[in-house]
Design goal:
Rossmann fold, 12-stranded mixed sheet, two-stranded antiparallel ribbon, 12 helices, 14 strands, 33% helix
């Protein structure tokens, strides 16, 4: 019954998206076209598919091939009046949203700027017109008011109760059967290409994802899994689909307690006290959190007793056939066609 309700809600959402698409197709004067190529990274489900790590991989890939790369993160209309970089936000000692902070963590060493603004259009307009420049836009698949040279859509197999027919088990903004067919599809947690995709969109470019888990200490220095595997831990997270993360940690740790807050949520004092208590009483040897959770907190807000016993976990994504993937992207961003919406 629950999955049926989710499916019906997703269908309604998809029809609304399609109606909005047709509106912008008709009102083409409202579609902004940047002077540089734009690639969007999006998902069909409403969170947790892996857009942020895919953006990081994509930006790094273009950087390796000598491109100037700008990554436009989410829109923050409520508190940003102008487009700024993540470094600007840090210097002003303002709160850095977790998606942008995670992207900057990996991309700052490559001198790739992560931009945040009141809207994606405003952020895009701030990108300088330079030769061999490309813009990666996070969560922009349904940003119809922006011309995109290519749409990359990531599908997570864990979002579907039936991976062959792609029946959603969580809310979708666009159901798979509503795909246009000209997207580049990236499949995560799939063993093979779903029948629905191969039959309905036989000419769609499809790639499988390679995924690996990485571990850090509180100072964000890499830690070998063998050093901590099998230990008793408290797992705490404020992300989409927290139970998937907790389930994934079971193959590395013995989970004694889990603490969950909402997506993008902040641990309250009571949660931090629970962590301290579990460590002090010997119930757990470590507290395990995600990199997004770690980047929400400064050194002053995380309990001193917990810092040295904190393990930070993140995932890194890459494309299995990287060479062919990049070749198709180059073809897309150099061709001149009508706006994708």
């Amino acid at each position: 019954m629950r999955e049926k309700c989710i499916y019906l809600a997703s269908v309604f959402y998809s029809w609304c998206v399609r109606a909005r698409t047709k509106y912008f197709d008709w009102l083409t004067s409202q579609v902004y076209r940047a002077p540089v190529p734009v690639i969007s990274v999006g998902s069909l489900s409403a969170g947790g598919a892996g857009k942020s790590p895919l953006c990081v991989f994509l930006a790094s890939l273009f950087n390796q091939h000598g491109w100037n790369v700008y990554l436009v993160s989410h829109s923050y209309k409520s508190w940003l009046k102008n487009t700024v970089t993540v470094e600007d936000i840090k210097e002003a000692k303002m709160f850095v949203p977790d998606e942008a902070a995670l992207q900057a963590f990996y991309l700052a060493p490559l001198h790739i700027k992560v931009l945040a603004g009141p809207s994606k259009r405003a952020a895009l307009k701030s990108v300088p017109f330079l030769e061999k420049t490309v813009v990666i836009m996070d969560d922009a698949y349904i940003s119809y008011y922006i011309y995109r040279n290519a749409d990359i859509v990531i599908l997570n197999g864990k979002d579907y109760s039936d991976v062959e027919r792609l029946k959603p088990r969580c809310l979708h903004r666009v159901i798979p059967s509503f795909l246009r067919g000209d997207e580049i599809l990236v499949l995560r947690n799939f063993e093979k290409i779903p029948a629905l995709i191969s039959q309905r969109f036989p000419h769609t470019s499809i790639f499988l994802v390679d995924e690996k888990q990485v571990f850090y200490n509180w100072r964000l220095e890499r830690v070998s899994p063998s050093e901590i595997q099998g230990t008793d831990v408290v797992v705490a997270c404020g992300i989409a689909h927290p139970y998937r993360f907790i389930k994934g940690m079971e193959k590395y740790f013995k989970i004694k307690k889990s603490i969950i807050v909402g997506d993008h949520g902040v641990f309250q004092k009571k949660h931090l006290n629970e962590m301290v208590r579990a460590l002090n009483q010997g119930d757990a040897s470590y507290v395990v959190i995600t990199l997004k959770d770690r980047l929400r907190y400064g050194s002053d807000t995380w309990p001193r007793d917990v810092k040295e016993k904190t393990i930070v976990v993140d995932i890194q994504l890459s494309i299995s056939d990287e060479e062919e993937f990049f070749k198709i992207l180059l073809q897309r961003i150099t061709q001149d066609d009508s706006p994708r919406s």
